[in-house]
Each structure stands twice: as C-alpha cells, then as structure tokens.
Specification:
Blueprint lengths: L13 H11 L7 E5 L2 E12 L5 E9 L8 H15 L4 E7 L3 H9 L3 E12 L13 E2 L23 H6 L4 E8 L2 E9 L3 E7 L8 H12 L4 E8 L3 H9 L3 E12 L1
Parallel strand pairs: 3-4, 9-10
Antiparallel strand pairs: 1-2, 2-3, 4-11, 5-10, 5-11, 6-7, 7-8, 8-9
Length: about 260
C-alpha cells in the first residue's frame, strides 16, 4: 500500500522482495519504520555507508501508508536514518526517483536533496540483435574475475543496484560474459536472469569494433524472455546510449539521481 501511488506500481513476490534487498545492500542497522496502532505506517530502508561512493549511503526505498500521510513521518524517518548513518561515518545519502513523480521530487528537494544526474530506463527486443562474433572470444566469466580497476572501461559509475557488490550478492542469478583477446578482458556484460542488464562495458581503446554489439547478443542469448531491460543508464554516457539507440531501444521512463550531503 505504501507504493500504491507510484508511477510504476510495485508488486513483489517474497523471492523478489528478498533479492531486491540483497542487490541493494539493505542494512537493518540503518533502516527504520514508524508504527502506529501496532502496524507499520511508514518506512525508510537504507544501505550502510559505502566507501565506493565516498561514504554515501544508498536509499533502497521509502514509503508511507496512504492513511498516515501528511503526518510528518517522512521527515521523522529521514532524521533518524540520517542520524544513524552520520554516526557511522556516512558523508551523505543518495537515491533515485522517477522524474514524473513530482510529489516525491518536491519532498526530497524540501529535505535538501539535490539532483546529481539523469538516468535512462529502456528495453531492447532480443530479436533485433546481431549475432556475436567468435573473434572476440566471448566466454562466461565469474564476477570475481572482472577487473578491480574499472576506470579503463566505464565512463560513469553504475548505480548501486548495478554495482559489482550487487552482482556478487545475486551471483546465482546473474550471467556474466566477457570478450577477450590474448588473455586480456576487452569488455563484459552482466545480466540478471530476469533480463535486466546490470553492466555493459568495453575498454575505451577498443570501442567501435563491434564488441558492444557482440556482448548485447551474448546477453540476449543467455536469458529467457523476449527483451533486455536497462535500468539506470547514465544519460550523459554517449557511448552506451548510442549503442542502445542503434538497436532502437524503447524508453520506459527516466529517473533522477538525488543526493543529500551531511
């Protein structure tokens, strides 16, 4: 019910709910609920401070039951959550919100969150993808084998639910495929079993050679369903967005990443 007015309604099975929290790093120490008359009236679920994000903590989800809205629970929960995070060394908080959700954006802005970047959510039919080329030596790869230093591959940092930590948390539900040449990793794609692509990366000095297209085709062949879904592609990433547009990716919605600095 707390998500009943979301632009995209959320209806999760127990399994998906559990995976959602594993993927995003849920921390019981930094997550709080507000109770009224013995029932949960509102909640704020957060991850712990993350050194990969300079100590910022990711907000998984926030919600208030319709019956208890306009009672200040949002602000009270934010105060408690941010206080606990700050006490544990966090430098701030970050989250994503759908750009058409004006009420949510206004609430976060009133709490001093500021927009940091735009994020694209789109889908890509599998039947239009080209066949992968054997010359790139496409093979499955363990998440732990991916490069520890990703700066040569990424123009932007994946959002927390698409990070390497998220991939490790759902390792049994993730396919990763790498392009290699002479033993070197030239690129990779990581896709969850539901068809959601967490990462696609090509080394900057090997772009425009068809590696990205080959990885997309490999990802499509590794999962069931009729499409791949890309959640939170940085809108400023010209390379990835050009690849998606080439295959006529269909936009679903846009999100806005917002940050609060302590």
């Amino acid at each position: 019910m707390a998500f009943s007015d979301y632009v995209v309604p959320l209806h999760m099975s127990i399994e998906k709910f559990t995976d959602f929290h594993k993927q995003r790093g849920f921390s019981s120490r930094h997550s709080f609920v507000a109770r009224t008359n013995g029932e949960i009236a509102a909640f704020w679920y957060s991850a712990a401070p993350n050194p990969d994000w300079a100590g910022s903590a990711y907000t998984l989800s926030v919600g208030t039951h319709p019956q208890y809205r306009r009672n200040g629970l949002f602000g009270q929960l934010l105060k408690v959550v941010s206080g606990q995070l700050a006490a544990d060394g966090a430098t701030g908080m970050q989250l994503e919100v759908i750009t058409s959700n004006d009420k949510a954006i206004a609430a976060y802005e009133n709490a001093d969150f500021q927009a940091s970047r735009g994020l694209r959510v789109c889908k890509l039919p599998k039947d239009g993808l080209e066949r992968s080329s054997a010359e790139w030596g496409l093979q499955p790869i363990e998440i732990g084998e991916l490069p520890s230093d990703e700066t040569a591959y990424f123009d932007w940092q994946p959002t927390p639910q698409n990070s390497k930590k998220a991939l490790i948390a759902l390792a049994g539900k993730t396919n990763a495929i790498a392009a290699r040449s002479g033993g070197e990793i030239l690129g990779w794609v990581a896709v969850y079993h539901d068809g959601s692509v967490a990462q696609i990366a090509v080394r900057k000095d090997h772009r425009r050679k068809g590696i990205g297209s080959a990885l997309l085709a490999a990802a499509a062949g590794s999962v069931d369903g009729e499409q791949l879904v890309f959640v939170n592609v940085d809108k400023s990433d010209m390379s990835t967005n050009a690849l998606l547009d080439r295959f006529e990716a269909e936009d679903i919605l846009e999100q806005q990443e917002m940050r609060l600095t302590f």
